[in-house]
Amino acid sequence: MTDLIQKTQSAYSYPLLIKNLLYSPVADNPQQQIIYRGEQTFSYQEFRQRVCRLANALSALGVKRGDTVAVMDWDSHRYLECFFAIPMIGAVLHTVNIKLSPEQILYTINHAEDDYILVNEEFLPLIEQIRGRIDMVKGYMVLQDSPKEISTSVPLVGEYEKLLETADDSFDFPDFDENTRATTFYTTGTTGMPKGVFFSHRQLVLHTLGTLAALSSAGKQGRFHKNDVYMPITPMFHVHAWGFPYIATFVGVKQVYPGKYAPAKLLQLIKDEEVTFSHCVPTILHMLMNDPAFNDLDLSNWKVVIGGAAMPKGLCRLFLQKGADIFSGYGMSETCPVLTLAQIDEEDLSEDQEVNLRCKTGRSLPLVDIRIVDNDMNDVKNDGNAVGELVVRAPWLTQAYLKDKRNSEVLWEGGYLHTGDVANRDARGYISITDRIKDVIKIGGEWVSSLELEDVISVHESVSEVAVIGSPDDKWGERPLALVVTKNEVTDKEIIKHVQGFVDKGLLTKQALLVRVKFVGEIDKTSVGKMNKKLLREKHL
């Protein structure tokens, strides 16, 4: 029988805490820069001091271990400081989704039992609207880009910068159990009220290490390293900006925070600050493409991970032609989130083969156990064709929904987290999400993937965006309905002829030809830029 590892009484067990992510970058590269909107610059040494000042300011207000502190801000250096200071004192960071409706924001504030809220001045009118129904909040700290007098009925405990100015720039952050909850936020599903997910210090540290291991071990393509310049274009309220601010800080790279997203500003920052690594949803790329400055921008040094929705091949091809190293990643709010990355090891690929691989869901990260299973939790074949539900185990998955036992049991039925995504995996380990279980279109007893049909239609030269939903049909049960936003004039017959070409090549099932085309002005999105297919069904069926 193997004995357990013994240690002396004085040995240090080193709990995996967020504070430990700061040791190396601050000690080894204290003058590295963190930039806000191209207007303010802080060194890593100053960043560490500001984290300590924020910890002292919060402690002076009465924030203690176990309290919940909410943040409502655009992507900023302040938000990054909150990513560290709040959990490092043992409190819980609640990143409020500012794109939700006032009623949903109210629900998340009360459900999370927030004790204090750090709120950008732009959102004070929203707080004024709902404050009478907020249950537990003890005080509000206002965040401003430039100091000025504010007229508001919200009882403010002070302004962020002024409170930091008077606080001590050192703080002895304590050790505590690494399984202590560090963050919470709410899913952006299209049914019911948002569900709370939460993550511990241990989970966030392991997610940082696991994702970095995958990114830094890449030979050439999709590699993240200490000479990169990082800028998030995924909101920091959404799954900690996919965890990348923790990764960037841990590595000690130059970081750029853009504030409120505006295409011209994002493109300017990419150019002026020589940004080399970002991540976003496809909607953001469409937004950048439509700005006049896009055409003259050199993207040959820009690596960008696309997630949150399937990346259309046409979009991938366009950005590759601009020189960008664009590739997919996959995860969910419940998974912290990164589970896979579509990095390419193969050489001598044709353009079509390369686009196809970059648009796949990718291969699993270290420590991630992904299975593709049938209804009885049996593994399907890894032949690139057999489909099933993607279920997963990893050390950084939410262990439950906050205060929601019933949905938590459904989420973890059978000991694996159920993603609700239909997928296949080929012999090389590349996974492809083919649909959400609830979005699969059932035509005469056969399943047709709405994502595959969207992907085909999206590469038509006249199509800007497309969403495919199932519409009721007396004969077939369901038929695909393609909602198409055009770049220039095109007819529905031309779209269907385009689909016919893929059917003739055996790349789509012939049932895809039952698609109906409807031209629309826009595709409705959720608060984080995903297609809102529930709303699309309500509007167009």
Question: How would you describe this protein?
Answer:
By secondary structure, this protein is α/β, with parallel strands linked by helices. Among the domains are: 18-198, ANL, N-terminal domain (Rossmann fold), CATH 3.40.50.12780; 441-540, GMP Synthetase, Chain A, domain 3, CATH 3.30.300. It is built from 17 helices and 25 strands. Helix 7 crosses helix 9. The relative contact order is 0.09. The mean pLDDT is 93.
Features:
17 helices; single chain; 7-stranded mixed β-sheet; alpha/beta; 5-stranded mixed β-sheet; GMP Synthetase, Chain A, domain 3; Rossmann fold; 541 residues
Topology overview:
Elements (H helix, E strand, L loop, with lengths): L22 H6 L4 E4 L3 E4 H18 L6 E5 L4 H12 L3 E4 L6 H11 L3 E5 L3 H7 L8 E5 L12 E4 H6 L15 E6 L9 E5 H16 L12 E2 L8 H4 L1 H8 L2 E4 L5 H10 L4 E4 L1 H8 L13 E4 L6 H9 L3 E7 L6 E4 L9 H9 L3 E2 L4 E5 L14 E6 L11 H7 L5 E9 L5 E6 L4 E3 L2 E3 L1 H9 L4 E11 L3 E10 L5 H13 L11 E4 L13 H8 L1
Parallel strand pairs: 1-11, 3-4, 3-5, 4-8, 5-6, 6-7, 10-11, 12-13, 13-14, 24-25
Antiparallel strand pairs: 1-2, 8-9, 14-15, 15-16, 17-18, 18-19, 19-20, 21-22, 23-24
Helix pairs in contact: 2-3, 7-9
> In this structure, how is the largest beta sheet organized?
7 strands, mixed
Which sequence of strands runs across the widest sheet?
7-6-5-3-4-8-9
Structural class: alpha/beta
CATH H-tier superfamily of one domain: ANL, N-terminal domain
CATH architecture of one domain: 3-Layer(aba) Sandwich
What name is given to the CATH topology of one domain? Rossmann fold
